[in-house]
Amino acid sequence: MDYLYETFIKTKKQREWFDRIDTLASGFAKRADTYDQKSEFPFENVEELKKAGYLSLTVPTEFGGAGLSLYEFVLLQERIATGDAATALCLGWHLGCFLELAEERTWDEETFKLLCEKVVNDQVLVNRAATEPATGSPTRGGMPQTTATRKNDEWIINGRKTFTSMAPALDYAIVSAQIGDTGKKGNFMISMKSEGVRIEETWDTVAMRGTRSDDLIMKDVVVQNSALVEQDRGKSELPKAWLLHIPACYIGVAVAARNEAVQFAKTYKPNSLPGPIGEVPEVQRKVGEMELELLHAREVLYSVAHRWVDEPHSRMQMGPELMAVKHIVTNAAARVVDLAMRIVGARSLAMSSPLQRHYRDVRAGLHNPPMDDMVISTLAKRALE
């Protein structure tokens, strides 16, 4: 096992899960370029993860899931991302939903139980659909333009959601909407098979192409009253620790780029040198810089994830630290990929090189929430207060 992971595997359970995922991720790496070039959703990867029980990783044990913690979630997500980043990011949204709901228990218990059992027994895929063209990222706090109108004991949902990752494979979407004319916001659980639900293929990005984060369109979608699973959550909600799956994904991309560059440095022998380029001091310096970036970023990521698990009494105060992790790790990941490409040189720009895919994918992390400006502002305000 790579020494990069040995440091962070602490228990027998973690090792068992890691070994299981390690084998799958190696297979994902062989298919990653195909999914990327065709901009196709990685159905085969997800099917293998379903068979491994991965979709119920963060479902509570009381409902039949594995009940793994934030720390273990992050560890496994990073390894998947070294194989295929799009697969990791997609599953991160699904698993993150259940980790958040398991920790906060804001839903009606029976509703949550039924959804968990669908994941365990039927392997359904779930994602939140919150981003919209007019509001941008939901972390900015804008009111959704999607509307939910009450009619007797039913709700009529109308709206458009962007960045709906896993759109072709989703079974359920947790959709944010304005509730009538109350000025309040709610979340509705909607089956993707409902009449009036459709996917518009708008995903034409150069990064994370396999996520198929297309638009979700809802036109007069009728749902039962019970579909309203959350409304007007207050400021007391826990910080969104589950979003650490984002930096975990992008540091996984960086590790994959680092591995590619190190292998190249160890084996490429131009006839102008007596040995491989890895013996050149400048190349060694760049390799050392990659190792330093990874050490810093991963220590921050795993130490904060461990603190979340180990110190539940501190969670309400951990918002700034969690935000800082995303900033530190995603920016470090981008630097690692850049260094890897400098080591490999112009060959890294060839479409046959995985490094060009890593370069495109890692850039997406800078635009996932929370944004850098929000992180810096939050840290500044805390210091000044």
From TrEMBL:
<dbReference type="InterPro" id="IPR006091">
    <property type="entry name" value="Acyl-CoA_Oxase/DH_mid-dom"/>
</dbReference>
<dbReference type="InterPro" id="IPR037069">
    <property type="entry name" value="AcylCoA_DH/ox_N_sf"/>
</dbReference>
<feature type="domain" description="Acyl-CoA dehydrogenase/oxidase C-terminal">
    <location>
        <begin position="247"/>
        <end position="364"/>
    </location>
</feature>
<dbReference type="GO" id="GO:0050660">
    <property type="term" value="F:flavin adenine dinucleotide binding"/>
</dbReference>
<protein>
    <submittedName>
        <fullName>Acyl-CoA dehydrogenase</fullName>
    </submittedName>
</protein>
<feature type="domain" description="Acyl-CoA oxidase/dehydrogenase middle">
    <location>
        <begin position="129"/>
        <end position="221"/>
    </location>
</feature>
<dbReference type="InterPro" id="IPR009100">
    <property type="entry name" value="AcylCoA_DH/oxidase_NM_dom_sf"/>
</dbReference>
<dbReference type="InterPro" id="IPR036250">
    <property type="entry name" value="AcylCo_DH-like_C"/>
</dbReference>
<dbReference type="InterPro" id="IPR046373">
    <property type="entry name" value="Acyl-CoA_Oxase/DH_mid-dom_sf"/>
</dbReference>
<dbReference type="GO" id="GO:0003995">
    <property type="term" value="F:acyl-CoA dehydrogenase activity"/>
</dbReference>
<keyword id="KW-0285">Flavoprotein</keyword>
<feature type="domain" description="Acyl-CoA dehydrogenase/oxidase N-terminal">
    <location>
        <begin position="13"/>
        <end position="98"/>
    </location>
</feature>
<dbReference type="Pfam" id="PF02771">
    <property type="entry name" value="Acyl-CoA_dh_N"/>
</dbReference>
<keyword id="KW-0274">FAD</keyword>
<comment type="similarity">
    <text>Belongs to the acyl-CoA dehydrogenase family.</text>
</comment>
<dbReference type="InterPro" id="IPR013786">
    <property type="entry name" value="AcylCoA_DH/ox_N"/>
</dbReference>
<keyword id="KW-0560">Oxidoreductase</keyword>
<dbReference type="Pfam" id="PF00441">
    <property type="entry name" value="Acyl-CoA_dh_1"/>
</dbReference>
<dbReference type="InterPro" id="IPR009075">
    <property type="entry name" value="AcylCo_DH/oxidase_C"/>
</dbReference>
<dbReference type="Pfam" id="PF02770">
    <property type="entry name" value="Acyl-CoA_dh_M"/>
</dbReference>
